[in-house]
Write a structure and sequence with these properties.
- This protein has 402 residues and is α/β, with parallel strands linked by helices.
- The protein has two domains: 2-206 and 380-396, Rossmann fold; 217-378, Rossmann fold.
- The chain is built from 14 helices and twelve strands.
- It has helices at residues 12-27, 57-79, 101-105, 120-126, 157-171, 183-189, 217-223, 247-256, 287-296, 311-318, 331-334, 349-361, 368-378, 381-396; strands at residues 2-6, 31-36, 48-49, 108-111, 131-134, 176-179, 231-236, 262-267, 278-280, 299-302, 323-326, 341-344.
- Helix 10 (311-318) links the parallel strand 10 (299-302) and strand 11 (323-326).
- The protein starts with a strand and ends in a 6-residue tail after the last helix.
- 42% of the residues are buried.
Length: 402
């Protein structure tokens, strides 16, 4: 069994999931490869950059020329459209994945987040292999947008229709297995025609439970120089431009709770240190440090108003720290109000502030060990990898997934 994973980047949620699954398969002696565009590989795993598959100086110069043409075409089309912070991907790319040796040797092609890497016309015209496609967002099913929140559908309607028709034609005579990553996303995907044309199987994303585990709260606070005598509320900050991440709601929530004995701590590239109740720790790209931050907090807040999954929710729960957020991504499947967190009924600051207060004033009934246990049992990468392996085997045996 030879599996080729294809993802544009190594970083980001999709990149982390893709590389984790690739690594787990390698540990189980499965012949797994991963193809990306990204230059820097910090995972320690063997990952193939598509540029390195091109042999010969002339061929590489030609690829660079095709990349330049793609950028010019992309910039020209985007310049004629309203600007938006929401992701919108074109179904074009300057690469021919099917010409790589990794593609030729693979039994199954596992697509992940492939914007600006997968050229739909070229790839699906040449492809003859079964495809597993993990839906890290809605883009494979749409005319270009990745998420519904904040996307100006009306302004992009004509282009979306054109691109959707291109995808429908490209997908004809293909063997594709959709993988929604949460029940919420699966319901959302049912609103798109392409989702109904192929088999699908819900397989959640996983978490490294050996890394994301409970640490002694007093010790990690001392190590990280965080207050021992305050209630700490942890969140990750993003630019306000990405509406789906809910940062505007989070800022309002902090204002609503600023009279309380609460210290907000955050990581991320946005500067929110101006808020009197918030300590900004800057960017963090180390899983073990993240594990300590989750463990130091009394509650983790996920203010996103749309997510396909929400990896940070699993990470926090795996560290035994309760989570407060809205009913998005994996939250409805893993959070039980009052036991290990709180799902806020309305996507508003007042609802989020109330959810945080519920947990702080009425501590969760589950211990940190009890909060972690179902994550360890159901969402560890070992468990998730077995589900993918079973699917691969069913596909290669020529059976329809159950």
């Amino acid at each position: 069994m030879k599996i080729l994973h294809i993802n544009t980047h190594i970083d980001g949620g999709a990149g982390r999931v893709c590389s984790a699954l690739h690594g787990q398969l390698l540990e189980q002696s499965v012949d797994s490869s991963m193809l990306v565009v990204t230059r820097i590989n910090h995972t320690g795993l063997p990952i193939l950059r598509i540029h390195n598959t091109v042999k010969g100086k002339i061929s590489r110069v030609f690829l660079e020329f095709k990349e330049l043409l793609y950028k010019i075409r992309y910039s020209y089309v985007r310049s004629r459209l309203p600007s938006t912070a929401a992701w919108f991907s074109f179904p074009w790319a300057p690469y021919d994945i099917t010409s790589t040796q990794a593609y030729k040797e693979a039994d199954i092609i596992h697509l992940h987040w492939v914007g600006e890497l997968l050229d739909y016309k070229r790839f699906f015209r040449k492809n003859s292999k079964p495809i597993v496609w993990t839906l890290h967002d809605l883009n494979p099913l749409t005319g270009g947008h990745h998420n519904e929140t904040g996307f100006p559908k009306t302004a992009y309607s004509e282009l979306s229709k054109k691109f959707l028709a291109l995808k429908e034609k490209a997908f004809s005579n293909q063997t594709i297995h959709w993988i929604p990553v949460s029940s919420v996303q699966e319901e959302q995907a049912k609103g798109y025609k392409l989702f109904h044309q192929f088999p699908k199987e819900l397989i959640h994303n996983g978490v490294y439970t050996s890394i994301f585990k409970p640490h002694d709260k007093r010790i990690v606070r001392e190590v990280l120089d965080l207050a021992q005598d305050k209630t700490l509320v942890f969140f990750i900050n993003y630019s306000d431009a990405y509406e789906l991440k809910g940062m505007k709601i989070m800022r309002e929530t902090m204002n609503l709770l600023k009279g309380k004995d609460v210290q907000f701590i955050t990581i991320g590239l946005e500067d929110v240190s101006a808020h009197p109740n918030c300590l900004s720790l800057g960017g963090v790209n180390d899983a073990r440090l993240m594990s300590q931050l989750y463990s130091a907090a009394d509650v983790y807040v996920c203010p996103s108003i749309e997510e396909s999954f929400g990896l940070t929710v699993l990470e926090s729960l795996s560290c035994g720290t309760p989570v407060v957020g809205f009913g998005i991504g994996c939250l409805p499947e893993v959070i039980k109000n009052g036991e290990n967190g709180w799902i806020c009924p309305e996507k508003t600051a007042s609802s989020l502030a109330n959810g945080i207060q519920q947990i702080l004033e009425n501590p969760c009934t589950q211990s940190r060990e009890a909060i972690r246990k179902p994550i360890e049992e159901n969402y560890s990468w070992e468990v998730i990898t077995k589900k993918y392996l079973k699917l691969y085997q069913v596909i290669l045996a020529g059976k329809a997934p159950s």
